[in-house]
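Task: complex structure prediction.
Instruction: return structure tokens for all chains below.
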Amino acid sequence: MAVKTYPVEIAGLRRELPVVQVGPDVAVALFNMLGDTEVVERAAAALAERLPTDIDTLVTPEVKAVPLAHALSRLSGKPYVVARKTEKPYMINPVSRTVISITTGKPQLLVLDGSDIPLIKGKRVAIVDDVVSTGSTLKGLSDLISEVGGQVGAVLAVFTEGSPRDDVIALGHLPLFKPE
Amino acid sequence: METYPITIGKITRHVPVVETLPGVHIPLVEIMGDVELVQAAAEGLVKHLPPETDALLTLETSPIVLAHAMSAICGKPYVVVRRKRRPYMQDPIIQEVESLTLGVSETLWLDSRMAEKLLGQNVALVFDVVSSGGTMRALEKVAQKAGANVVARLAAFHQGNSKLPVTFLSEIPILQTA
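Output:
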């Protein structure tokens, strides 16, 4: 069976992304960095060069962008915080917000552990994600950061998707596809 | 807040101690977000990778950063097994976890596109913390269903009595109180 793919270049590396249907009228080029260490490291290096110098902390949503945030943190020396998708029993005073995810169409919780809030409160924060599409995760995460007293100073992603947007520092852009 | 010192290589962290059951207190380790600790664990664990290892196999969420850091050091790829079904998955491998944690059941998922990469490969399982070994056993079954051979079981930390032989860097005690 022939699988439709979409070719992309990420910081000088070429990859063929499978095009998969995620809703009745929409298909996406599926970008999954998990396990692709070369892409994560190269993307992190490229994004590190474009990270504004006044940023104090990186914040990333669980799960797929976590290795990117780890690598970017290692390269830049800025700490990173993971916004989890569920509250964990061990969290201290967690703060949460619900967003609608494009890939699932379902409500998705974003949770910050209270013990991570000192890294965000009164700080300039960069949000790090793999793909920024409708921006619903971005909006929810921005609101959450504001709620705990942080200021979002930049948004970094490997790709923007759908409508082009200039509020995101990205290494590339992915179109949306019609299912065949 | 009560803390307990844990050490890997030259890195020591004073982690919070939480009461999981009445009278049972455990030091709580979270490697995600701690770049130095993850790098130290990765450097320690790659030394235990058998030379015949083709790939690392891990699961979401916390051990992903460890697998990534190990992969960046040793040059071997890694595959992440998910804890939730994702909409894009085709014909996934599905594996129940026999969990001892208060009867909460859990399921592991691996997309067939990822599983294909494991066929005939020698894989090392990568964990941050192994306690009962139930999740590691389930991950091993995922590997077997994908046609991979498990050549190593690696964990940064070991806690309690695992039923599986595990290579780990640091023991975390279970602290009992009267």
